[in-house]
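Me: Here is a favour to ask of a fellow structure person. Could you put it straight underneath, so I can go through it closely?

Assistant:
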Amino acid sequence: MSYLTNDFDVNYVKIKNINIKYYLSSLLSKFNFTHAFFTKGCSIFPIEELARNFHNDANNFINNQIHSDFIVHGSRLITGKRFDADGMISESSNQNLWIYTADCMPIFFADKSSRLVAAIHCGRKGLEKNIIKKMLNQMQNLGSLKKNILVAIGPAISKENYFIDENCLKLFYKNNFPKVNSKSILDSKYIYKYSENKYSLDIRGYAFNQLISNNISPENIDISNSCTYKLDDQFYSWRREKIKKRNWNFITSKLI
Protein backbone atom coordinates (compact mmCIF):
# COMPACT_ATOMS: atom_id res chain seq x y z
CA MET A 1 0.00 0.00 0.00
CA SER A 2 1.31 3.46 -0.89
CA TYR A 3 1.56 6.13 1.76
CA LEU A 4 1.30 9.90 1.94
CA THR A 5 3.54 12.41 3.66
CA ASN A 6 2.31 15.74 4.96
CA ASP A 7 3.45 19.24 5.76
CA PHE A 8 3.56 19.29 9.53
CA ASP A 9 2.35 22.46 11.21
CA VAL A 10 5.04 25.02 12.03
CA ASN A 11 5.25 26.76 15.37
CA TYR A 12 7.79 28.71 17.42
CA VAL A 13 8.73 28.99 21.05
CA LYS A 14 10.77 31.96 22.33
CA ILE A 15 13.53 31.17 24.81
CA LYS A 16 15.87 33.95 25.95
CA ASN A 17 14.68 36.08 23.01
CA ILE A 18 15.52 33.32 20.52
CA ASN A 19 12.75 31.88 18.38
CA ILE A 20 13.04 28.10 18.20
CA LYS A 21 11.16 26.48 15.34
CA TYR A 22 9.38 23.19 15.79
CA TYR A 23 6.85 21.05 13.95
CA LEU A 24 3.54 19.58 15.04
CA SER A 25 1.57 16.64 13.74
CA SER A 26 -1.94 17.88 12.99
CA LEU A 27 -3.21 14.39 13.85
CA LEU A 28 -1.77 14.48 17.36
CA SER A 29 -2.77 18.12 17.79
CA LYS A 30 -6.35 17.28 16.81
CA PHE A 31 -6.56 15.05 19.88
CA ASN A 32 -4.71 17.52 22.13
CA PHE A 33 -1.47 15.61 22.59
CA THR A 34 1.35 17.97 23.57
CA HIS A 35 4.41 17.24 21.46
CA ALA A 36 7.12 18.83 19.33
CA PHE A 37 9.57 17.86 16.60
CA PHE A 38 12.29 20.48 17.07
CA THR A 39 14.71 21.90 14.55
CA LYS A 40 18.44 22.29 15.12
CA GLY A 41 18.11 25.62 16.95
CA CYS A 42 16.87 23.75 20.00
CA SER A 43 20.28 22.19 20.63
CA ILE A 44 21.64 25.25 22.45
CA PHE A 45 19.18 24.69 25.30
CA PRO A 46 18.84 21.80 27.76
CA ILE A 47 15.66 19.77 27.45
CA GLU A 48 14.49 21.04 30.85
CA GLU A 49 14.41 24.57 29.50
CA LEU A 50 12.60 23.52 26.36
CA ALA A 51 10.07 21.53 28.39
CA ARG A 52 9.19 24.44 30.66
CA ASN A 53 7.43 26.04 27.72
CA PHE A 54 5.12 23.05 27.23
CA HIS A 55 4.60 21.00 30.39
CA ASN A 56 6.56 22.57 33.21
CA ASP A 57 5.54 20.22 36.02
CA ALA A 58 6.40 16.99 34.18
CA ASN A 59 9.49 14.85 34.62
CA ASN A 60 11.81 14.64 31.63
CA PHE A 61 13.09 11.26 30.49
CA ILE A 62 15.67 10.35 27.88
CA ASN A 63 17.58 7.14 27.16
CA ASN A 64 20.95 6.24 25.69
CA GLN A 65 19.81 5.30 22.20
CA ILE A 66 21.68 2.33 20.78
CA HIS A 67 19.65 1.37 17.66
CA SER A 68 17.98 -1.43 19.61
CA ASP A 69 14.49 -2.80 20.19
CA PHE A 70 14.65 -2.18 23.95
CA ILE A 71 11.66 -0.34 25.44
CA VAL A 72 11.52 1.13 28.94
CA HIS A 73 8.26 1.52 30.84
CA GLY A 74 7.43 4.69 32.72
CA SER A 75 7.37 2.85 36.03
CA ARG A 76 11.12 2.25 35.63
CA LEU A 77 12.05 5.71 34.45
CA ILE A 78 13.88 7.83 36.98
CA THR A 79 14.66 11.49 36.42
CA GLY A 80 18.36 11.87 35.66
CA LYS A 81 18.91 8.16 34.95
CA ARG A 82 19.31 6.82 31.43
CA PHE A 83 18.77 3.30 30.18
CA ASP A 84 20.23 1.76 27.02
CA ALA A 85 16.99 1.72 25.04
CA ASP A 86 15.31 3.19 21.98
CA GLY A 87 11.73 3.25 23.19
CA MET A 88 9.76 4.66 26.11
CA ILE A 89 6.17 4.06 27.08
CA SER A 90 4.52 6.27 29.68
CA GLU A 91 2.39 4.94 32.50
CA SER A 92 1.63 8.21 34.26
CA SER A 93 0.35 11.66 33.37
CA ASN A 94 3.47 13.67 34.16
CA GLN A 95 6.19 12.40 31.88
CA ASN A 96 7.91 14.04 28.93
CA LEU A 97 9.42 11.40 26.66
CA TRP A 98 12.41 12.71 24.69
CA ILE A 99 13.90 11.21 21.52
CA TYR A 100 16.96 12.61 19.72
CA THR A 101 17.47 12.06 16.01
CA ALA A 102 19.77 12.95 13.13
CA ASP A 103 18.24 11.06 10.16
CA CYS A 104 16.43 8.23 11.97
CA MET A 105 12.71 8.56 12.60
CA PRO A 106 11.25 9.95 15.80
CA ILE A 107 7.97 8.06 16.09
CA PHE A 108 5.25 8.98 18.58
CA PHE A 109 2.36 6.74 19.59
CA ALA A 110 -0.73 8.07 21.35
CA ASP A 111 -3.88 6.30 22.51
CA LYS A 112 -6.73 8.75 21.95
CA SER A 113 -8.89 6.89 24.45
CA SER A 114 -6.63 6.11 27.42
CA ARG A 115 -4.15 8.98 26.68
CA LEU A 116 -1.23 6.56 26.94
CA VAL A 117 1.78 7.82 24.98
CA ALA A 118 5.04 6.27 23.76
CA ALA A 119 8.06 7.26 21.70
CA ILE A 120 10.72 5.40 19.75
CA HIS A 121 13.91 6.20 17.87
CA CYS A 122 13.81 4.08 14.71
CA GLY A 123 16.12 3.83 11.73
CA ARG A 124 17.13 0.92 9.52
CA LYS A 125 18.26 -1.17 12.49
CA GLY A 126 15.12 -0.42 14.43
CA LEU A 127 13.08 -1.59 11.46
CA GLU A 128 15.18 -4.76 11.26
CA LYS A 129 14.51 -5.46 14.93
CA ASN A 130 10.76 -4.75 14.68
CA ILE A 131 10.71 -2.12 17.42
CA ILE A 132 7.45 -0.75 15.98
CA LYS A 133 5.64 -4.07 16.38
CA LYS A 134 7.09 -4.51 19.86
CA MET A 135 5.88 -1.08 20.94
CA LEU A 136 2.38 -1.78 19.63
CA ASN A 137 2.35 -5.09 21.50
CA GLN A 138 3.37 -3.38 24.73
CA MET A 139 0.67 -0.74 24.33
CA GLN A 140 -1.86 -3.53 23.84
CA ASN A 141 -0.57 -5.23 26.99
CA LEU A 142 -1.39 -2.00 28.83
CA GLY A 143 -4.92 -1.99 27.48
CA SER A 144 -4.70 0.00 24.25
CA LEU A 145 -6.85 -0.98 21.31
CA LYS A 146 -5.18 -0.63 17.93
CA LYS A 147 -8.15 1.31 16.56
CA ASN A 148 -7.38 4.03 19.12
CA ILE A 149 -3.62 4.28 18.49
CA LEU A 150 -2.41 7.35 16.61
CA VAL A 151 1.11 7.40 15.14
CA ALA A 152 3.18 10.40 14.03
CA ILE A 153 6.50 9.95 12.21
CA GLY A 154 8.56 13.12 12.44
CA PRO A 155 11.26 14.57 10.18
CA ALA A 156 13.73 11.93 8.97
CA ILE A 157 15.97 11.18 6.03
CA SER A 158 14.09 10.67 2.76
CA LYS A 159 14.51 7.82 0.29
CA GLU A 160 16.17 10.24 -2.15
CA ASN A 161 19.05 10.76 0.27
CA TYR A 162 19.48 7.44 2.07
CA PHE A 163 21.77 5.04 0.22
CA ILE A 164 23.15 1.66 1.24
CA ASP A 165 25.26 -0.94 -0.54
CA GLU A 166 24.12 -4.39 -1.65
CA ASN A 167 25.54 -6.23 1.35
CA CYS A 168 23.73 -3.91 3.75
CA LEU A 169 20.56 -4.30 1.72
CA LYS A 170 20.71 -8.10 1.85
CA LEU A 171 21.26 -7.98 5.61
CA PHE A 172 18.25 -5.68 5.94
CA TYR A 173 16.11 -8.11 3.97
CA LYS A 174 17.47 -11.15 5.80
CA ASN A 175 16.43 -9.64 9.12
CA ASN A 176 13.09 -8.27 7.91
CA PHE A 177 12.00 -10.88 5.40
CA PRO A 178 13.90 -14.14 5.96
CA LYS A 179 11.71 -16.02 3.47
CA VAL A 180 12.34 -13.59 0.61
CA ASN A 181 14.78 -14.74 -2.03
CA SER A 182 17.61 -12.21 -2.43
CA LYS A 183 16.90 -12.10 -6.16
CA SER A 184 13.47 -10.62 -5.36
CA ILE A 185 14.82 -7.76 -3.27
CA LEU A 186 14.07 -5.12 -5.85
CA ASP A 187 10.44 -6.22 -6.09
CA SER A 188 9.80 -4.03 -3.06
CA LYS A 189 8.42 -0.57 -3.76
CA TYR A 190 10.52 0.79 -0.89
CA ILE A 191 13.87 -0.14 -2.49
CA TYR A 192 15.30 1.70 -5.49
CA LYS A 193 18.48 0.84 -7.39
CA TYR A 194 20.40 4.08 -7.78
CA SER A 195 23.56 2.80 -9.41
CA GLU A 196 25.81 -0.26 -9.33
CA ASN A 197 25.96 -1.50 -5.73
CA LYS A 198 24.05 1.57 -4.50
CA TYR A 199 20.45 1.41 -3.37
CA SER A 200 17.99 3.91 -2.00
CA LEU A 201 16.10 2.73 1.09
CA ASP A 202 12.76 4.27 2.09
CA ILE A 203 12.69 3.90 5.87
CA ARG A 204 9.46 5.89 6.15
CA GLY A 205 7.82 3.54 3.68
CA TYR A 206 8.94 0.51 5.65
CA ALA A 207 7.71 2.05 8.90
CA PHE A 208 4.32 2.67 7.31
CA ASN A 209 4.24 -0.90 5.99
CA GLN A 210 5.03 -2.30 9.44
CA LEU A 211 2.28 -0.18 11.01
CA ILE A 212 -0.45 -1.26 8.61
CA SER A 213 0.78 -4.86 8.76
CA ASN A 214 0.08 -4.63 12.49
CA ASN A 215 -3.45 -3.34 11.92
CA ILE A 216 -2.92 0.38 12.42
CA SER A 217 -5.32 2.21 10.12
CA PRO A 218 -3.70 4.52 7.51
CA GLU A 219 -6.05 7.26 8.75
CA ASN A 220 -4.30 7.03 12.12
CA ILE A 221 -0.81 7.56 10.68
CA ASP A 222 0.73 10.98 10.06
CA ILE A 223 4.13 11.16 8.29
CA SER A 224 6.21 14.32 7.95
CA ASN A 225 7.60 15.13 4.50
CA SER A 226 10.59 17.02 5.94
CA CYS A 227 13.95 15.44 5.09
CA THR A 228 16.68 15.94 7.67
CA TYR A 229 19.41 15.48 5.04
CA LYS A 230 17.99 17.93 2.53
CA LEU A 231 16.94 20.69 4.92
CA ASP A 232 20.40 21.53 6.20
CA ASP A 233 19.26 24.91 7.53
CA GLN A 234 16.74 23.21 9.82
CA PHE A 235 18.00 19.80 10.89
CA TYR A 236 21.17 18.00 11.85
CA SER A 237 21.96 14.99 9.68
CA TRP A 238 24.52 12.32 10.48
CA ARG A 239 24.77 11.27 6.84
CA ARG A 240 25.39 14.84 5.72
CA GLU A 241 27.65 16.14 8.48
CA LYS A 242 29.05 13.13 10.39
CA ILE A 243 28.90 15.08 13.65
CA LYS A 244 27.17 14.09 16.87
CA LYS A 245 24.57 16.83 17.02
CA ARG A 246 20.93 15.89 17.29
CA ASN A 247 17.41 17.19 16.84
CA TRP A 248 15.17 16.91 19.92
CA ASN A 249 11.63 15.53 19.82
CA PHE A 250 9.19 14.99 22.68
CA ILE A 251 5.67 13.94 23.57
CA THR A 252 4.07 14.38 26.98
CA SER A 253 1.62 12.20 28.82
CA LYS A 254 -0.14 15.19 30.34
CA LEU A 255 -3.84 14.45 30.74
CA ILE A 256 -6.47 16.90 29.46
